[in-house]
Amino acid sequence: SEEARRTTRAVLVRDGITPSDIGQGALGDCWLMSAFACLAEFPGAIENLFLTREVSPRGKYSVRLFDDRIGTWRVVSVDDCFPCDDDGTPLFAQSHQGELWVLVLEKAFAKLCGSYAALDGGLTLWALHVMTGDHVFTLSRDEAGGAWKRLDMRMQPTDDNPRKVGLYTTPETYSPEQLWQMLLGYDRSSALLAASISSQSGEAKRTDGLVAGHAYSLIRVVEVGVFQLLQL
């Protein structure tokens, strides 16, 4: 962290925040990195979480996150001491060109949840809620019938587990075509979208190149002729 503060290359944000700034490290928090990437698609969205807007000479940073234990936003303050390997490379969240914002925001989530270990595995939905304070929901595919059903996420935090939630089935179901039209509409209205593939045995690469058990940010939804395309 001392080296990060002294180098002229270290910045909190360089030339704006984009989804490509973000890389996952050794921690199993792809769900959180996916949420960061979702928000990073929209200029100013991540920046608005930071009360500290540039590299701090004291190595102290303050971030706003929504805490359901108190039902409102709270300020989470962290320092810039990040877990690193022997050559000084951060072990967990990664960024490019000396940007610190990804590492700071990940550490703020770790503090909110109690530790870095508490970030191992989670729901992108919850992270989006914490960064926006908004209502979130998910759509799950019925393997038998092929229809998509809506589940609403309800917060059930406890003192020692701010991430505790319940997913509750609603009467709403959608055909694949209805789902596609919904995605088009949400993308056009600049909604935050994410996707994942269920897996019972951790992450596993599929023949189509996608990884089951991994969380993706959904950046664009477009139709080109007869083709329905998603950018992950």
Question: Would you kindly provide a written description of the structure presented here, covering whatever features stand out?
Answer:
The chain has 232 residues and is of the alpha+beta class. The protein has one domain. Helix content is 22%, strand content 25%. It contains five helices and eleven strands; from the N terminus they run ααββααβββαββββββ. It has helices spanning 2-6, 30-40, 101-113, 124-132, 176-188; strands at residues 60-67, 72-79, 137-141, 148-155, 165-174, 194-196, 204-205, 211-212, 215-217, 220-224, 227-231. The protein has a three-stranded antiparallel beta sheet with strand order 3-4-5. The protein has a two-stranded antiparallel ribbon with strand order 1-2. Strands 6-9 form a two-stranded antiparallel ribbon. A hairpin with a 5-residue loop joins β7 and β8 (211-212). α2 (30-40) packs across α4 (124-132). Residues 1-8 have low confidence and may be disordered.
Salient structural properties:
disordered N terminus; 11 strands; alpha+beta; 25% strand; 232 residues; two-stranded antiparallel ribbon; single chain; three-stranded antiparallel beta sheet
Strand order, largest beta sheet: 3-4-5
Helix content: 10-25%
**Principal-axis shape:** globular
- Radius of gyration over C-alpha positions, nearest whole angstrom: 18 Å
Mean pLDDT: 88
Domain unit count? 1
Class derived from helix and strand content? alpha+beta
Helical stretch tally: 5
Instruction: Sketch the topology as an H/E string, one letter per element.
Output: HHEEHHEEEHEEEEEE
User: First CA to last CA: what distance?
Assistant: 32 Å
Number of strand segments: 11
Oligomeric state, counting identical vs distinct chains: single chain
Poorly predicted runs are 1-8
GO cellular component, one term: cytoplasm
GO molecular function: calcium-dependent cysteine-type endopeptidase activity
Pfam families: Peptidase_C2
Protein name: Calpain catalytic domain-containing protein
